[in-house]
Design goal:
alpha+beta; two-stranded antiparallel sheet; 136 residues; 4-stranded mixed sheet
């Protein structure tokens, strides 16, 4: 395994995230800017919450792939949402979108509710940190 997952017993068993990820020595860090689930390049009306979540994940992974990595190289995600209730109501669909892209691997994650995002119509934005192995 590339990363060492750090889930201290006193913090309880995480479900759908990891408390910490220890990257191996010698990797290169890739900081992925916030990738919105809806922006001015999209046409029509804003997608529902789950579709925006999936699009934001795809955009994060596109940056990681362009840098020479893959989904297993993502060490940390911060998910910004404008509606925590919509996030909770969509958890089943979000889980499906997650598993299609990451399988059962969960990086260190945080969820933050915000009042608005920069892109009009955006309900989800995800930023990430990936660690790419040298020599790729």
């Amino acid at each position: 395994m590339k990363f060492e997952i750090v889930n201290p017993v006193p913090l309880g068993s995480p479900s759908g995230w990891s408390n910490g990820i220890l990257a191996p020595a010698g990797g290169r860090m890739l900081f992925v800017a916030g990738q919105a689930g809806w922006d001015r390049s999209c046409v029509g009306s804003p997608d529902d919450f789950a579709a925006q979540f999936a699009r934001a994940l795809d955009r994060v992974l596109e940056v990681v792939r362009t840098a020479g990595g893959g989904n297993a190289d993502v060490a940390r995600l911060t998910v910004f949402v404008t509606d925590l209730a919509a996030y909770r109501a969509s958890r089943r669909a979000l889980g499906g979108a997650w598993r299609e892209r990451f399988g059962r691997y969960y990086p260190a994650m945080a969820l933050v509710e915000v009042s608005a995002l920069m892109d009009e119509g955006a309900q989800v934005e995800i930023e990430a940190t990936a660690v790419l192995t040298l020599g790729r």
